[in-house]
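Quarterly update, task 2.4: zinc ion-bound model.
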Amino acid sequence: MKKIAFFVLGLLALASCQTRQAQAGYIVQVSLGPWNAPAYSAGQIISRIDSVSNLIPVEKVIIGWSLEKDLYREVGEYLHGKGIKMLCWLPVFAETEEVCESTPAVDLWGRIPGNFNLTSGEAFRFNCPSDPANAAAIVAVYDREFGDCGFDGVFLDRIRTQSFVGGVSGVLSCGCADCVARYAAEGVDLEAVKAAWEAEGDAFLSVSGYAPETGFTFVNPLAADFFRAKGHIVSNGVAAVADSLRSRGLEVGMDLFAPFMAPFVGQDYAILAQHADFVKPMLYRKTTAPAGMGFEYELLRTSAPGAHGFEGLVLSWNIMEAPEAHIACLGQ
Ligand SMILES: [Zn+2]
């Protein structure tokens, strides 16, 4: 009986796999590393896309962001011959110091929030999302470095503020003079936010509910106003960059935080979706790096242990089948 069940399940899996392939193309990403020499040659990339295309229908390739025009031109020629679009993977509000001037984001105390450091040395400083010069600078980088490489679109990355990776200070940013004025226009006094945080500490971030449409319900109405305004300010900053690139005839894709963490980094899905052809929520379940869902949530808990987040865990969905090693991890 067991064998039959597995056989049927196998057929179902095969059927669902075939259905997916018939319905949708895939977008794949090629990470060349940052602005320096690319991690792969054009020949290696073409060979890989060729073999992947034999397994799944590839519709678009996101590639970046090494400064190697000839590589993009060669890969682009191959992709276009196959009817595949090539999108430029472009960081917007971080990792731009090497290629353009930009003003940094600061927290409410005027300090630059701490960077993230992996053992690899990866670290990124965020730029102010309000400064129009920052938006213009990254668009100029696109024009100068990628505009004549045959790209069909752009995939915008780092379109947010620092997360809890920079502690609470990273989330309570940007607090520069430009942003103070923008929050004021949204009806939020950043001095009052700062005073509330200093008086209440972690409790300022306490939540009492969550709805997919509206996100967290913050206990403190000022916190609710702050994160609503932050979503407007950061996301409209992203929209300006997206619209500018779209006016060049480019398709626009966006890399977004997981929906439940997005409000903390200023990503308002409703605004961003209006300026993108597609969005990719970063639902990275087991990624121990920025945007990883568990990683970011644990940082929230350690950054603000006094805030009432949600408590407890539901072990889904069959305790009869869960490996004991996995359960033991929870007891440690
Ligand atoms: Zn600012």
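Highlight for this quarter: The chain has two domains: 1-83, 88-330.
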